[in-house]
Design brief:
alpha/beta; Purple Acid Phosphatase, chain A, domain 2; six-stranded mixed beta sheet; 3 helices; 16% helix; globular; metal-binding
Length: 183
């Protein structure tokens, strides 16, 4: 199974267009959105090309291939614009040798973990900082932000392909972080 991850779009139409281009070219079966899709939030500056209604229109065209979780900036009003569910605080995707626990990162994160078994992966956004690493018997993965990157990183997205978690620059596909999760 090949999956693509994007987080923290925050209403940026140009970032959404790039994500959807990368998704179409990736061959991934699912696009996993890790929250903060339409609203920029009170602590963030407006992202480039801020057009939340247009972002919703563009994402809706891929609705049947999107799995999403709610971020701290997502609201019930946002859900009214989207044709796929975004109100779950977490989702799980089962893998042959474990599971992905998908969450935005404001409720569960590397310092406040849900109950995870050996080989499971905590997948979150929220910090806007990419990460792919092993922590004891589990893995933590953050694809960064596609619109408002932080920590000196480029705007980025993630992929899971054949047991390899990778974070790539949204602009030029340069590898930022990588972790093998195969047993």
């Amino acid at each position: 199974m090949k999956l693509m991850f994007a987080s923290d779009i925050h209403g940026s139409l140009s970032a959404t267009e790039k994500v959807l281009e990368r998704f179409a070219a990736s061959g991934a079966q699912w696009l996993i959105l890790l929250g903060d899709l339409l609203n920029h939030g009170p602590r963030n500056a407006l992202p480039e090309d801020y057009q939340p209604a247009r972002v919703a229109e563009r994402l809706n065209k891929a609705a049947e291939r999107i799995i999403a979780v709610r971020g701290n900036c997502d609201s019930e009003v946002d859900q009214m614009l989207l044709n796929f569910p975004i109100t779950a605080p977490w989702q799980q995707v089962l893998l042959p040798h474990g599971r992905l626990f998908l969450t935005h990162g404001h409720l569960y994160h590397p310092d406040k973990l849900p109950a995870l078994a050996a080989g499971d992966v905590l997948v979150s956004g929220h910090t806007h900082i990419p990460m792919a690493e092993r922590r004891g018997e589990i893995f933590v993965f953050n694809p960064g932000s596609v619109s408002i990157p932080k920590g000196g990183f480029a705007a980025s997205y993630g992929m899971l392909d054949d047991g390899l978690l990778s974070v790539y620059s949204l602009e030029d596909n340069a590898l930022i972080a990588q972790q093998d999760i195969t047993p």
